Amino acid sequence: MGDSILDMYLYETNTLLEQLDGILLTAEQADTFSEDNVNEIFRIMHTIKGSSAMMEFSSLMTVAHRIEDMFFIVREKGMDVVPEQTKPELFDMLFQAVDFFRGEIEKVENGDPLSQSIDHIVNKINSLIDKIQGNPAAPAAEASAEAESAPASEAEAAAPAVSAVNQDYPYGVHVFFDEGSGMENLRAFMCANSVKDYCGDFVTYPDNVESDPSTSDIIADQGFFVWFRTADDRDSAIPGVKNAGSVREYQPVDAAKPAPAPAQEAPKAEAPAPAPSAQAPKADSPAPKPAPAAAPAGQQHAKESLISVNLSKLDQLLAVVSEIVITESMVTASPDLKGLRLDNFTKSARDLRKLTDDLQDVSMSLRMVPVSGTFQKMNRIVRDMSKKLGKKAKLTLIGEDTEVDKTIVDAIGDPIMHIVRNSMDHGLEENEADRIAAGKDPVGEVILSARHTGSEVIIEIKDDGQGVDTQAVLNKAIRQGLAAPDHDYSQKEILNFLMMPGFSTNTEVTEYSGRGVGMDVVKKNVADVGGTVSISSEWGKGMTTTLKIPLTMAIMDGMEVSVGGSMFTIPINSIQSSLKVGAKDVIHDPAQGEMVKIRDNFYPIIRAKELFQMEKGYENIEDGILMWVESGEHSYCLFVDELLGEQQIVVKPLPNYVNSFGVKNYGITGCSILGDGSISIILDVINVYTAAHNIF
After folding, report:
1. Which of 86, 172, 514, 633 has the fewest C-beta atoms lying within 10 Å of its C-beta?
2. Residue from 214, 209, 212 nearest 140 by CA
3. Model confidence pLDDT, tens digit, residues 48-93
4. Can you tell me the distance from the alpha carbon of 485 to that of 481, in angstroms, rounded to the nearest whole number?
5. Bridge partners, 560 (sequence order)
6. How many structural domains are present in the chain?
7. pTM greater than 0.70 (yes/no)
8. Rounded distance between C-alpha atoms, residue 492 and residue 474, angstroms
9. Phi and psi of 161, rounded to 5°?
């Protein structure tokens, strides 16, 4: 049970931090917080504080608590209370707080101990609160002076307040806040505001908590009193005290039974204001209060229509649906039915196929999530790097509602981050003068776009920077022994050197990567989810990195072909067409081997029988069929025996034992069980090409 609570905490907190990041980036661009922003940040901090306290993560709780206090003041008094010169400091502190929260959450996820020293960030928040309240350090001296004369025990604390209370308000609640919670005057102010929701007619002691921080020490020592006209008013307001937050304990007190008090304390305790003055704060703030109260209620209602489900359960669901698809094929294609005319069965089988298709679509869509979450995180990277590198830049997002399988979204987060960092660090020009001289906007632009093309998603990261100096890349590749000095390379081949392990055009190691650092990681991560990476660049104009990624890896449409009695599946989206040719149509090229001409272009022929070293299979080109396939930058014709037809297949990973033989290098990416129970090998078009050209 503990693990599920922790998982829920991590999920909720990470979601809130993403929301907070988005709010801060928007607000920083507007150079102010809207009323909705303030309410939202207050709510987020309140939630993180409460859930962190429940999990006993004190560092997270304390920082969230302090920021909540700050935004409580801003919420009550408006953004005008924040001095203009303090705003940049406020934004920086909040971004720093988000990074702190993220760092702590990462520690929780890894099982590491949380930070003990949070003074640096708490001090920053406290200093900002002082600036917002316009309080110099002087009141602290008054506070300590008053604290010295304050009663030491709770019993004594009650005495002055009870004896000096306005006789019209004899029924009180004595409230004590959490020890060491700090800023007790604000806690008292929040408590009084919470009580207002239940009963508006009351007075407090001390009464000037909002404007006088020196009351903090009095409240810490003596507690905080709320006085009511009737016992019923007090009873109805108790929930307000309970909901106030940071309340350690509370107890009803009655002025009718005053505790003995020293006479000299009475004048000092005459601070409680009479009824009319107690109403004044109420009159000042009736409007703002209902708005925040209404907002959480609305959000809560919206959330009820959503449910978070563990990804492993969705994996199990998809596995079951996959088995249903296979079993349905086995039933409808059973050899026992061959030659029988079964009209009713055929109709039912058709209906069953439609339902299994619908079930499959629904179960797949459950795993589909928009790429907006990953895209939005890049805003923060561009913002931080702009400041640190002194480059003006903006991020433009296109098609962020495009949906991809959850596992794929998780896998592409790091590659996209690497590429965006490269664009910022090494792509955009070092200074505005260079951009203006080149006739460009002084503010650099990084465009992050996503779009669907049937069975795959195309993600492009484009910058309008200086582009890649292909000659410099080639020289570096030659120095590293990756390229032959006397070979004539195409631009595409030169750009591909950027994705070789450890290759970089950056001459110095900086905090951020140069072009190429991490690009090999990008290629590997994208390849792991069945995708491809390609780079294009024009010197002086910028660079574009394109990721082509399958929508999902679980179920796909494939074309079944046979070679010597064995069956293979070729992904439909890789097939251009199928064709029969005669021996006279085949051209024998000394360098490329067998080739065939299709639509004025020549394509190499790869024989599946020879590639997989199979004993059976057609030798004569007239007997078999050519499958013209294309993926990424490779296009060729695969020679097979027969074309069996299109089928929707469930992708099954190969066992680790089989993978250990390096079958993926030969273009075997997995397998599938067909309707008759036989196994079909799924081919990866790109690796088949690579394997063939390494062998021949």
Report:
1. 633
2. 214
3. 888 888 888 888 888 998 898 888 888 888 887 788 888 888 888 8
4. 9
5. 569, 645
6. 5
7. no
8. 11
9. -65, -40
